[in-house]
Specification:
The chain has 855 residues and is an alpha+beta fold. The strands form four sheets. Strands 15, 16, 17, 18, 19, 20, 21, 22, 23, 24 and 25 form an eleven-stranded mixed sheet that branches. Strand 9 and strand 10 form a beta hairpin. The longest helix has 48 residues. It is globular and about 95 Å long.
Length: 855
């Protein structure tokens, strides 16, 4: 029986290929995700490991905490005299101190920062006259920088921006742009650093540029031959100050990777979710395709039953067919994922996340998981068609046009489908609206609820096919005439098949609609917040709007003509109430540029914070039972405790605010944080926003390449750019599920062309032209796509309503992007047209006489 099944499958290669494509793309997404994230992890591991080459131990500054999910925490520098002490120890072979930074920008010939797509902008120190055993970089041209006016840059910037040894390039760090002669071109061997940039200076120059004169950030230490690393570390601890710590290199690499690992884990989970969506859509396509083929092979199965095949053998036949398709599709998807990983990296780079990479990592886990998941999903999708095939009676072999008999439980199908839909809605409501749920329980309820919602809508969709087809196919009957009318009838002929085909597209468009509405809600709530808060004339930010900006830019713009108020907002991290959170510092003139709605206190609060005052938002105050006069203790990254008194509580506006839960005065912030930076600066000028005032503000900032003056409207527009980029990224990833559903429509149309071969021959015989035949198939495809779009948009709007209601307390509003929905409808029409190209050509190309004789 297995041999018969395999021969039959080989005889239906086209159908098998079309079915396998539904699983190929989902598995490719999964494989590409694993390959991409494993390669990124491997690249970061190589970067961190290489940066400590030849070192057995690493000495660094100690912080009280780290914050990988918020503002960076900078470790304190170490006295340079400590290097000499370490070198003098008997168990030390060599030691070298260095300074470094991740916010030192290279500035191009056009005076603009050489963008890094959100990647670090690195600066390093080297000692050109000393042993280079600890230097991870290699020269590709020129020499190491050896004076106060020299720099070495990375090979990627050199090639992409056409710089060579001897050219001049700008560098901006803690102050205005300075210009350096390029002494050399460097690279990190074996690794692409993605969008990051590198600037390398001699030690004295780097210390002056980074405000580290007389200090170092790291000391790399190599033990003498025969001295174990644990023994070396014990010896080093004896001479270290309280602000320093020592780790072996493997522990230091692990520590450096903490933030990276959480980021790549998020990326992996994020992409795997979209792979799961594609596989979920693919399961609909596979189940529908196999159902159609089973229905078309009634006489074949009946003949097998007549010659002695049992129900179990028929079941095994369909399952084996699905198994073969699943294995072959998963194998194809597995290796297609290698190519898709490069595409995903390009997509991330285009949206501002140009990540480092090294040699492609193809782990055994990727192979096992992809093959297992792809095959199991195909098998699962085949079960219902397989059980249906077992119901074919032997007598059907001699009947013309025999159909599958209904199952024993067919009469319960309406009740089960309605119950599935209702249970999905209830779980979604519970997951979104219930209070006091743990994160795991909430996510579980939402995940199962969404799955049941999709199954429920798909199961009940057949009842909506006829009314939807009547409305959505109306233009086809007017434009296509008889072909359009036949297309509408064909769509309505088998509602279950049409609904199953449309359901695959419904899932993708439901999620696209949900994302679009949620994104519009985020934009609307943010704009509302800015309109309510921003009462200054201008904002001063970095070019990216989100990166911190040196305080020197704030100090420079204070001297501009007509400036009356300059109020900077600092950004940092602190630990309070046993949690590491963001912290902001504010200027005494904040009330003149930012309008806060005070629940307790008044607009005079920022001016009276002093050395022990703080203000908090009302949600934070409610959570921790704070009122005016309440005591609050925060810990800074250096371990210093600040004992504060609450002097104001403001109502957190819908759409958020630039303030952390806790805010202190800038004077207190600057006294307790290393190299403080501004998140943004707000300004007032005499005469308000005018071209003359804008030029007057830009004049003192001409030496700050990363500084940007913005009006309120520009500020809103630039803050919304990342939201739009994320939406575009989501659309691209969801497009994969839409492509899978497109193959589902192609499958259905191709198989129905097989099924209706005699019918098509008859229509051609009575006068239907090839053009009309193509038009009929095309209209049928478009109507099916529009039914999927209509169902998807209804589901997407419902999901968005639930989620925005749950997030309403955070200021997210329900806002429908009507133009985007129009685009989605047009996209559905295009999908229908594209899906119909091949089936329509095949239908139009049928030989009339052969078609009339087809069985």
């Amino acid at each position: 029986m297995i041999r018969v099944t395999l021969k039959g499958l080989a005889g239906r290669r086209l159908r098998a290929l079309l079915t396998a494509l539904a699983i190929v793309l989902g598995v490719a997404m999964m494989s590409g995700t694993f390959v991409l994230t494993d390669t990124i992890n491997g690249a970061f591991t190589s970067i961190f490991t290489e940066s400590y080459k030849n070192a057995d131990a690493v000495i660094s500054g100690k912080t009280a905490f780290t914050n990988h999910n918020g503002n960076n925490v900078q470790a304190p520098s170490l006295p340079q005299s400590l290097v000499a002490k370490v070198k003098a120890m008997p168990d030390v072979q060599a030691a070298a101190g260095s300074v470094g930074d991740d916010r030192t920008k290279l500035v191009g010939r056009d005076g603009k920062v050489i963008t890094s797509g959100g990647a670090p902008q690195l600066a390093f120190s080297v000692n050109p006259t000393a042993d280079q055993r600890f230097n991870p970089l290699v020269l590709t041209a020129g020499s190491w920088p050896s004076g106060p006016h020299e720099v070495a840059i990375d090979s990627h910037v050199a090639s992409s921006k056409h710089y060579k040894v001897g050219d001049t390039i700008g560098v901006e760090s803690r102050g205005p742009v300075r210009h350096f002669r390029i002494a050399g071109i460097v690279k990190l061997p074996g690794v692409s650093i993605g969008g990051a940039t590198m600037a390398v200076f001699d030690t004295a120059t780097a210390q002056g540029l980074l405000n580290r004169v007389g200090k170092v950030d790291l000391i790399r230490v190599q033990a003498r031959h025969g001295v174990s690393t644990p023994k070396l570390i014990r010896e080093l601890k004896r001479v270290l100050p309280a602000s320093a710590q020592v780790r072996d290199t493997s522990a230091q690499v692990k520590e450096d990777k903490k933030g990276v690992s959480s980021f790549t884990s998020f990326i992996q989970g994020f992409l795997l979710a979209f792979a799961g969506i594609s596989l979920f859509v693919g399961s609909f396509v596979i189940a529908n395709t196999l159902s159609i083929t089973v229905a078309q092979r009634v006489r074949e199965f009946a003949t097998l039953r007549t010659i002695g095949a049992t129900r179990r053998q028929i079941l095994r036949s369909v399952v084996v067919e699905a198994l073969v398709i699943g294995i072959l599709g998963s194998l194809a998807g597995l290796f297609l994922g290698l190519l898709l990983a490069k595409g995903l990296k390009a997509v991330f780079a285009a949206t501002g996340f140009d990540l480092p990479s090294a040699a492609t990592v193809f782990q055994a886990r990727t192979i096992v998981v992809c093959l297992l998941v792809g095959t199991l999903i195909t098998l699962f999708a085949s079960l219902r068609p397989a059980f249906r095939a077992t119901r074919v009676p032997p007598i059907a072999a001699v009947r013309e046009g025999a159909e599958l008999p209904p199952g024993r439980f067919a009469r319960f199908a309406p009740i089960l489908s309605a119950a599935t839909l209702a249970l999905g809605v209830l779980l979604l409501g519970y997951g979104v609206l219930a209070h006091g749920l743990t994160t795991v329980n909430r996510l579980s309820a939402l995940g199962v609820g969404v799955l049941l919602l999709f199954f429920g809508v798909s199961a009940n969709a057949s009842r909506l096919v006829r009314p939807l087809a009547s409305v959505l196919a109306w233009p086809a009957t007017r434009i296509g005439g008889a072909a359009g009318a036949l297309a509408r009838e064909n769509t309505m002929r088998n509602p279950k098949r049409t609904a199953s085909t449309a359901s695959a597209l419904m899932i993708g468009l439901a999620l696209v609609t949900f994302v679009a509405i949620l994104g519009q809600g985020l934009r609307s709530s943010f704009e509302s917040a800015v309109n309510g808060l921003f009462k200054g004339d201008y904002a001063l930010t970095s070019q990216s709007t989100f990166a911190p900006l040196t305080i020197s830019a704030e100090q420079a713009v204070r001297h501009a003509r007509n400036v009356t108020v300059v109020s900077g907002i600092r950004a940092g991290s602190a630990r309070y109430f046993d949690s590491t959170e963001n912290l902001t510092g504010v200027d005494s003139q904040l009330a003149k540029v930012v309008q806060l709605d005070w629940k307790e206190g008044s607009a005079a609060v920022p001016a009276h914070l002093g050395r022990n005052g703080t203000f908090v938002d009302d949600k934070f105050a409610k959570k921790h039972h704070l009122h005016l006069g309440s005591r609050l203790t925060i810990e800074t990254p250096t371990g210093h405790l600040l004992h504060l008194r609450v002097k104001g509580i403001f109502r957190l506006p819908k759409g958020g605010s630039p303030f952390a839960p806790v805010s202190i005065s800038n004077s207190l912030f600057d006294a307790n944080y290393i190299n403080p930076e501004n998140e943004m600066v707000f300004l007032n000028v005499r005469g308000g926003v005018t071209d003359a005032n804008t030029k007057a503000l830009e004049q003192p900032l001409k030496d700050f390449a990363d500084a940007k003056i913005q009006t309120a409207s520009q500020f809103k527009k630039n803050f919304e750019k990342p939201i739009n980029k994320i939406l575009y990224l989501l659309y691209v990833l969801l497009a994969l599920s839409v492509v899978v559903s497109l193959f589902g429509i192609v499958n259905t149309l191709v198989l129905t062309v097989y099924e209706r071969t005699r019918e098509l021959g008859m229509l051609r015989a009575v006068g239907m032209t090839r053009s009309q035949t193509r038009s009929m198939i095309r209209h049928e495809s478009i109507v099916t796509s529009l039914i999927g779009a209509a169902l998807g948009m209804m589901v997407g709007v419902f999901l968005a309503l639930l989620v925005t209601h749950a997030l309403s307390s955070n200021g997210i509003v329900f806002a429908v992007p009507w133009l985007s929905l129009v685009y989605f409808v047009l996209a559905a029409i295009v999908i229908g047209i594209v899906a119909a190209i091949w089936p329509a050509r095949r239908a139009a190309g049928l030989n009339v006489l052969e078609a009339l004789q087809y069985e």
